[in-house]
Amino acid sequence: MTKDEILNMLRSASAPISGEEMSRALGVSRAAVWKAVDQLRQEGYAIEAATRRGYRLAALPDRLDAAVIACTTDGMIRRISGYYGHIEGEYLQDADGAGSQHARTKERFPAPWPRFRDELIVRLSEQPGEHLLDINPGFYCEYGTEHIRPVFVSRMPRRKVTGPGHKETIKGAAAADEGLLTVRKALTELKLDKDGEIKDYYMPSSDTLLYEAIKAQLRRFGGDGKKAFAEPFYKPKADGTPGPLVRKVKTTEKATLTVPVHGGAASNDTMVRVDVFLVPGDGYYWVPVYVADTLKPELPNRAVVQGKPYSEWKEMREEDFIFSLYPNDLVYVEHKSGLKFTLQNADSTLEKTRTQTSAFAYFVSGSISTASITIRTHDNAYGIPSLGVKTLKTFHKYQVDVLGNVFPVHKETRQKFR
User: Fold this and answer.
1) How far apart (Å, rounded) are the C-alpha atoms in residues 408 and 95?
2) 3-state secondary structure of 33
3) Which of 61, 108, 305, 395, CA to CA, is 20 to 30 A from 410?
């Protein structure tokens, strides 16, 4: 239990916390605290220790693991796998950092070099150059620390183009002239609008008896469809007796991007990529490309416009195309009024928000409902869930190698799938 309690204390602490404070708060020895901290480090938590200040949680396991994986060769993987396959158990790091010792068998596993783990943890911090001389003075006095920069996690772009061509629900196109589609919706999903009418109900006048009965049932339960129709609901007859069982009714929704299916339409499913355009004097735009589009001879050319149906989206010219973005492609964005990143892990001790004018980040996805994209920092610690691209001052694409070095991608040629 001590290990989990130590982790919770480090996560909730706003400043470094000493081993003495933790041992006193938990009623355990200093040695037990040190052992718990070492176990957490073995599990991948980057915990920094500073003399007369205490312990601080610097990074979560995924960031540490990414750095270790990037530095690992196939030969090392085979040796370590074989070693741990032969002997299972806990290893505790030596006090001098020269290796680890098995708690039960006392067998030793050498580190790549003395204090390797301590050095790696410092390299993962925001200002790695500050403490490297204390850990490995023999190397860094000669090599220098002025050019050392924080570790940058390299991610592989996902250029998968497989997946469903459309969602399963097939919708009628009866209201297409009004920019609407009809879809059958379960009674449990119905809601009341601000006027007390059923939201998006299709043609209430076509069967007023049924409409009024459903509306009355919703009102009895405060507009909560799940509660109102938890039990079977039957259409009332004119004489008041129950008629046929009703499970779904027709509703309408705004038409965006759809795929023709069996005389109706279905919403696009998997977005493969977004194609980015720079329109001179107007800013950046992006065109969504779905799995269904990969089966067509021509690529779509309408860019998303917030709050507008597909028919009113802006048509793009091929000469204005600059690059395509797949999930995990690296971008550099700059906004004159600032970029507000929010913390992704609510339990983290890092600052909840971070504002900066520019940033390198990985592209995650696009949303046609808000005409925005989602981006995240290299270590997944911070993200922007809805970033509008039209008013960005700078929007560039980069490549990143396995060591975290980044290189600009110049204007691309738009690639077709067929």
Assistant:
1) 44
2) helix
3) 305
* CA–CA gap between residue 93 and residue 39 (Å, rounded): 9
Other CB atoms within 10 A of residue 247 CB: 11
Query: In this predicted model, what pLDDT tens digit does every residue of 275-307 receive, in sequence order?
Result: 999 999 999 999 998 888 888 889 999 999 988
Report the chain's C-alpha Rg in angstroms.
29
CB of 17 closer than 8 Å to CB of 55: yes
Question: pLDDT per residue over 57-69, tens digit each?
Answer: 877 666 656 666 6
Predicted TM-score of the model (pTM): 0.57
Q: Are 166 and 266 in contact (CB under 8 A)?
A: yes
SS3 12: helix
Looking up tokens 């991948």, which residue turns up? 44
SS3 87: coil
Does the structure show a pLDDT above 60 at 21? yes
Three-state SS string over 143-192 comes to: HCCCCCCCCCCCCCCCCCCCCCCECCCCEECCCHHHCEEEEEEEHHHCCE
89 falls in which pLDDT band (50, 70, 90)? low
For 103-121, how does the pLDDT look when each residue is reduced to its tens digit (9 = 90+)? 677 777 777 777 787 787 7
C-beta contacts of 114-119 below 8 A and 24+ residues apart: 117/41, 117/93
CA distance 289 to 300: 7
Question: Whole-angstrom Cα distance, residue 318 to residue 320?
Answer: 5
Separation CA 65–CA 179 (nearest Å): 49
Q: Within 10 Å of residue 48's Cβ, how many Cβ atoms?
A: 18
Contact yes or no for 113/98 (Cβ under 8 A) = no
Q: Are 110 and 98 in contact (CB under 8 A)?
A: yes
Instruction: Specify the residue for token string 């107007």.
Output: 282
Contact 344, 381 (CB under 8 A): yes
Rounded to whole angstroms, how far apart are CA atoms 230 and 337? 49
Burial class (CB in 10 A: 0-12, 13-18, 19+), 301: middle
Q: Give kind and range of the element (H or E) at residue 210.
A: helix 208-220
Residue 258 CA to residue 127 CA, distance in Å, equals: 49
